[in-house]
Specification:
Shape of chain B: elongated
Number of strands of chain A: 0
Order of helices and strands of chain A: HHHHHHH
Radius of gyration of chain B: 24 Å
Structural class of chain B: mainly alpha
Strand content of chain B: under 5%
Shape of chain A: globular
Helix content of chain B: over 70%
Strand content of chain A: under 5%
Oligomer: heterodimer
Number of helices of chain B: 5
Distance between the termini of chain B: 26 Å
């Protein structure tokens, strides 16, 4: 069991952390806490994993629920731009543009409602709509409509800032 | 800009190269669980001792001060018990459910908290104040004026502070409930 958990932890930590990071507006410390909370729950419930879905989907379920549970703390995280070295101007400029866009994305994700935020983070991670339906408990058709609507909202916000 | 570009930007974020070691968390969790069991045991023993003491005293002598003190202690014990139960309920929430079912579970939890805040808590505050009122009557009779005023002012100040924090917590939970219902 311990080895199985360690493998799961090593293989899934990055995606769990990234989803949490998106949920708490890029605040790394909060995201680390949420990711740890998620894995505590994975560890506690691992014997209940029935293999009805893939382990990845099962872990995402726990992650999104842990994120939603975080709502009670009413904390607002903030995205901080990583430091960029000035030795290569071109690279620095490209990197700066990339970071600014990321910052804008985090801000736009924060404007979404709780469930919308979770759904779009799953989409951004590249999950299939069927898998998202399995995680959220919505029908595939509902997810399709929902994803389309949130995608439009996010694109509009990132492009025009509204 | 297309959504695909946004997705690319998102996925290009650097990965965590140093995955934190999970062993300290596991050990900490074991310690917390042990601590929780000890706290529950201590609280239960204290509760039993207090109740036994109450019956032992009241069997021989009934007085207004005993009634006042009993009301005050009962309100505090009930309030603490409500909070402990709420925390336990929150911890026991089934995280294996789908997001929608989990959200429903969370909404129901906050609706119960709302009901508590608008029904049970005001009653408890009222009973607490009745207890204080009874005690004040005896304080007025048996204590010096200066000490009586000191107790009265201290009580009013602490009650205002307590009320402020209860109100803040309730507003916070109402906001959480609203957010969940709207999402």
């Amino acid at each position: 069991m311990k080895t199985q958990f360690n493998n799961i932890y090593q293989n899934h930590y990055d995606k769990v952390y990234r989803l949490c990071l998106g949920y708490v507006n890029g605040d790394e410390a909060l995201a680390k806490d949420l990711a740890q909370d998620t894995f505590v729950k994975v560890w506690e419930h691992l014997d209940q994993f029935k293999q009805k879905s893939s382990i990845g989907t099962w872990i995402y379920r726990i992650t999104v629920n842990t994120c939603l549970l975080f709502i009670r703390k009413n904390k607002k995280g903030s995205y901080s731009l990583p430091e960029i070295r000035d030795d290569d101007t071109n690279v620095a400029e490209t990197e700066k543009a990339h970071q600014t866009r990321l910052q804008q994305m985090y801000a736009c994700i924060q404007k979404l409602k709780e469930t919308e935020r979770i759904v779009i983070l799953l989409v951004l991670e590249g999950l299939a709509q069927k898998e998202i339906a399995d995680i959220t408990g919505h029908s595939h058709q509902n997810v399709r409509v929902m994803v389309h609507r949130i995608k439009e909202k996010l694109t509009k916000c990132v492009t025009h800032g509204i | 800009m297309e959504f695909k570009d946004i997705q690319n930007t998102w996925q290009q974020q650097s990965e965590q190269h140093n995955i934190p070691d999970f062993t300290p968390t596991q050990q900490k969790l074991k310690k917390i669980r042990k601590g929780q069991r000890i706290t529950q045991l201590i609280l239960s023993i204290t509760g039993i001792v207090l109740i036994s003491f109450f019956f032992y005293i009241s069997a021989y002598k009934f007085s207004g001060t005993l009634l006042g003190m009993s009301l005050l202690i009962s309100v505090i014990v009930i309030r603490v018990w409500i909070e402990i139960r709420s925390q336990q309920k929150l911890r026991k929430m089934n995280v294996l459910l789908s997001l929608e079912d989990f959200k429903t579970q969370l909404i129901s939890y906050y609706e119960q908290r709302k009901k508590l805040a608008f029904t049970t808590i005001p009653v408890l505050l009222l009973v607490y104040n009745i207890g204080v009122g009874i005690m004040m009557y005896y304080f007025y009779q048996y204590l010096s004026r200066g000490f009586f005023y000191y107790i009265t002012i201290s009580y009013v100040v602490s009650f205002v502070i307590l009320f402020y924090f209860i109100r803040k917590q309730v507003l916070n939970e109402l906001k959480t409930l609203k957010n969940l219902q709207e999402s």
